[in-house]
Every structure is written in structure tokens, then in C-alpha cells.
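Hi everyone, sorry if this is the wrong subforum. Our group has a chain we'd like a structural model of before ordering constructs, and none of us has done structure prediction before. Sequence below.
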Amino acid sequence: MSQASQPQPTSSSGIFNKILLAISVGFSAWAYLKARPPPPKTLGSPNGPAIISPRIKLRDGRHLAYEESGVPKETAKSKIIFVHGFSNSKHYHPFATSASPGLVKELGAYFVSIDRPGYGESDPDPKRTVKSLALDIEELADQLNLGPKFYVAGFSMGGQVIWSCLKYIPHRLAGAVLISPAINFWWPNLPLNLTNEEYSRQLKRDQWSLRVAHHLPWLTYWWNTQTWFPVFSVLRGHPARISPTDREIFSKMFSTTDPVKLNILRTHPKQQGDFESLHRDLNITFGKWEFDPMDIENPFPNNDGKVHLWMGDDDRIVPVTLQRYIAEQVKWVNYHEVTGAGHTLPYADGVADDILKSLLKDQN
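Answer:
Right subforum, don't worry. Here is the predicted structure as C-alpha cells:
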């Protein structure tokens, strides 16, 4: 036989490359499916959560659920929109549950507490940004006829939303209060030595969770549902994040709340699924912001309103040292620090009253 007619040996390296390619494609498909969050449960659908609260329809077709409390809106001296925190809903409203009814009546305070997008009975917002919820709040105020000026109050991650209100809708605000507001370690005006120190004090599992939310937000769902590594500690109620006063408040809440209502408090926040509520919260809170709160100009240059920031000095979720630094830099913020209080500050005895009095004492 001639050399041309002899069979050519098959290249082993070529077969190996094909196998590697097949494995790579298969792994990529598996990883994509694992990283992709499931669709949320559709509100009002046969198999979805029921809609029992009043809602408004927003400009883009989404709905925002709310709950009213306090004095009647028609006779109110002040109207306050409350924004809840992480893994909460409109039912976690300290002014409705912890403030003195007599003080609320004396101050003439009307409250409207909202479910943030993806929480409770508010539709998810797949296009949610740092700015978008401030615009939702403004539209809610208009549809509920709250007038040209209203107050905003927020707790924890809901407190962080108030910075967005101060940035994007300051002309609509009569005053604002941020209660234990979440902090983004990547805000550029925070000193690097201070953020590095506080970041190193976070649990290792949380350091990784925050890195994922900031640098790889498309992996947040997978990271917080996988079982190979510990997930964000707040999702699991890690004891290191709970101060003694927090524990007392939780114990009192669980022992005095009606079991049916307690079940609602536990299940209502994330009834549409974890991604559109909890995981998107992490991506927004610790993601890349469009502004730094320390760059916001005084929203009340004519002294016709006040901004208050309340913190507990034993908060084990939000670093108090970073909060103090922000308050020092933003001169127009009135800073209040409560000794011995933890993250659940507004639910401690008497604190909700103190917050309301400081916010509304100068109202016309």
C-alpha cells in the first residue's frame, strides 16, 4: 500500500478537546440554570398569594400595596410615609405598633406604610434602581392626595431609601427620618481605612455575600440558595447579629402577638419569593449607587424642614462608627444615638414616641 492510501491515526488531542468543550458547555448550562432565579409567584393568581390590601397602580403598570393608620387623613396635621426594612413588610410599622395612640392623636399624625416592590402585596420591579422607589413614593403621595409636602420615614434598608428621597424628591418633603439605615461599604466618600476596619469585623460569610451583591449581582440568588458555603447571616437570624436588647424585643413581640398575626408577619414579606424581595434588596443596597449620600445638598436650606437619623450604639447589623462619620459629614442631619439600643431601635419602649416628637415638633 502507498503512504497516501494508509489509514491516518486519529488525533487523541482532538477528541480530548471535544470532550472538554462538551463538559464546558454542559457546565455553563447547569450554572446558568442554577444562577437564574425562578419567576415570582404571581399575586392574585389561582396558585399565587391573595391580594387583600389596597393598592395603587403606578405609571409603569405595577401596583404598590399600602396600609393606613393614625388619625384620619382628612384631619391630619402631618402625613408620613413609612418604608419598611429587609425581610419586613408594611405590617412592620413601629409608629402603628409601638407609638402611643395618645401622642399620635395629639400630633395629628396620619401614616401610610407601603410594601416595597417584590415584598408583601406589591408587584416586583425588575428594573428597580436606587432612584425608582423614591419616584414610586412620590406617585403614591399624589394618588393618595397627601398634598404638596409630606414626611418620609424608613427603617434599616428602608431607611437607606430615604437618602434616595432626599436626593430625588426633596421638593416634596416636609421632613425625614432615617432609623438604623443600612450603609453601603462602597460609598466613595467613606474613608477607606474606616470601611476596611468595619468590613473586616463582619462575619466572613457576610463579607462574601456583600462582595457577590456588589461585584456579581447576577450571582446573588445562587449564592444565597446554594449549600456549599454559608449564606448572608441575616437571612438565617445568626445570633452574632442580634444584640441583647434586640433579643428582648423579639421575645416580647413573639410572646404578645396573636399567633395568626405572627404567622402573617413571618410569611407575608417574601410570599412572592426570595429573589424579588430579599436578593434584589441586597443588590440595590450594596450595589453600585448613582450618588453618595454625603454629596446630597441640604434639602431644607430655608430651615423649613428637618432630617433626623436615629441609631442604637449596640447595633450589630449596621456599623455605628460609619453612621457617626456620615452624620459628622452631613451637617444638616440631626443625629440621635440611643445607648444600649440595637438594630430594632424603633420597637424599643418609648423610642417610637421620641422619634415622632423630634420629627414633628416644629410642624405648622
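For your construct planning: The radius of gyration is 24 Å. The CA atoms of residues 81 and 133 lie 12 Å apart.
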